[in-house]
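worker-3 :: picked Fe-S-binding domain-containing protein
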Amino acid sequence: MTSSIFLDAPWEREDNNAYIARGGYSCAPAHSSGELLAVLRDADLRGRGGAAFPTATKLEAVLAAAPPARPVLVANGAEGEPFSFKDRYLMRYRPHRVLEGLICCAAAVAADQAFVYTCDDRSAESLRAALRERDYPIPVSVVTSEHTYVAGEETAVVNRLSGGLGLPTDKPPRPFESGVHGRPTVVLNVDTLAQVAGLVHPTAAEDGTPASFLASVVSIAGEPALYELPEGTSVRELARDFAGQEATFSAVVMGGFFGGMVPLTDENQVALQFVPPPGSDTALGCASFFFVDEAQDCPVAAAADAAAYLSRHNARQCGPCVRGTATAAKALESLCTGKAAESIRDDFARWAEILPGRGACAVPDGVARLLRCLMTAFAPVVQTHLAGRCERCVDLTASGRRRSRFALTF
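worker-3 :: tokens ->
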């Protein structure tokens, strides 16, 4: 498909003049609230930050809650998932597309103030340069926060922009009810806003190309890659394109740590779409993919490392979350080292049932989904680890590849 994001020079920052030359800002903020909402509903645009919540519904909630206070609009570019870098790409190289989407949505809800929130200094520099390149109808501020896993959770974003720490808060209230400084606030991922800009472009309706999404792709061996893919692409297609003839994969961790883990077999043709089929225990999430290399990696080690990361990087505010994630991570590590008891499968089943919902940052939900995936799709692999220590796990630890799993630089 023709890329609407990468253009002819994917690694050159697009400035205001270049963006205008290809039709940018030609309709922002010309769409009325009703017109924009209709466009978003017709496209069924879902949030690209992980939850895939309908964008039109988010805007409608703020419109309903706003009077008498004027709302605030926030572009969320925190991007805390270790394997995701699509948002940083947009902010660094396509900042005006993000800002056009922001201005369109701000106009639709009659916001009088907007923020772009990021944990990446290069992104902040690019966005501030973009703001200097043209005048905007409302004040737009770029705010940076410490790069932590939970900094992008929307109540953490609101907390930071209101002068607090970038940590999640109890819900309710939700941001649309009481957000930045108590005002109704809509928080939209920067990729979502870039999609809005594409949808309101004058030629969008005539383009005829299927809906697309940006995907961050990485493995323990090889260079990370960024794709623009049509919805419905199969995970096997993506794996073949990413690996070429050089590698094969046994599994993929989907959508960041909240999307679950899927075995890669010829029969498993999982379609990548933001609304998963009924009964699915995986999700596209933020569209990041970690492929588990068949020769150099192990699905159990990947799950153990993900759980350990979540245990280290949760908000440390809720006791059940802190204790639950740490216990699950320790049990998964024992499976890697060949020291787990047969009863671990019963433990996994129990934790997968009781962990969801145990915390403000939803980290336990991600751990629970990983455990469910291991018990169902990877039961034979778990049994092999119970029978004795996995040689790939031994090599992963000895070589240092486990320690470097999350050392993604972009």
